[in-house]
Amino acid sequence: MTDKAMMRVLGGGRVDPPPVWIMRQAGRYLPEYWELRGRAKDFLDFCYTPALAVEAVMQPLRRFDLDAAILFSDILVIPDALGRKVWFVQGEGPRLEPLLDEAAWSFGDPEGVTGHLAPVYETVERLRATLPQKTTLIGFAGGPWTVATYMIQGRGGDKDRCRRAAYERPADVDALLAVVAEATARHLAAQVAAGADCLQIFESWSESLPEPLFERVILKPTAAVMARLRALGVTAPVIGFPRGAGALIGRYARETGVTALGVDIQTPAAFARKEAPAGMALQGNLDPQLLIAGGAALETGARQVLEAFGGGPHIFNLGHGITPQTPPENVAKLVEIIRRPGES
Fold first, then answer.
1. Taking the model in full, what pTM does it have?
2. Most buried by CB count within 10 Å: which residue of 50, 58, 106, 253?
3. What CATH number labels 5-339?
4. Is 74 a catalytic residue?
């Protein structure tokens, strides 16, 4: 049996207290992160410099008793590897050259992504050699629809134009999703080959999709990623996080082939447990705002999550990523509450 608590849960076991990690745990809420960030010429350079990326991963582990480390990278390395220009605007977020501005959509061959992303896999290798044996190493990628929407509209924000494009340019959108799915599977497989124990697919923009479109742009491409991963010989467990899927979360859990299900802040644990296959590990789902609030609100919220997910395999996490305004001492308090759930 593995000594990694998170891997035991991903295998269907129940661990008490549950293992804990925090989405975006390496990053902007830590003052030491900003000093590190200043050493890179831009954010992609940060992601592609293994020494800096490894240090970003290690910073929260030095502060907090977490069960897992997650690779420091970005979901938009995939379009970058496919030859689409990607850059980051301080205070505003990522930008790409939007496909919607082009009559004919063009992007590189997914066979070339792993060569372009070799520095990412070097980061994984260095982490594997650095992390304590008990610490699970998580690799990740964005879900195909989430990545494709950035490529289609060139930025985050409202996705109405992307949804409309799926109806107006169905052949283009479906071809893009197929390319992104293949590139994503290759990228994830390379992370496992480099030493990742498990993987997470961040389908951050699953919300506001009617069921037929959800089938087409979420379920089908994610199932393609999973099928391709398994065909490539990857047996590592995969956590799927379809944020905002709502009533369709059960279809995602049952039909995509993911091993475990990430639960967002608005989805009740009981609903997720009922909709997911029996024995599937669930991950989540504390409101990140409670980490800012701290105090009695944080303690109550954390205990409510522990109780709500107590009936089966559970990985404690947030229901969305940690925010920059979070005081680090509140993260320490959260971990203390989880480790000693019966105490104040």
1. 0.97
2. 253
3. 3.20.20.210
4. yes
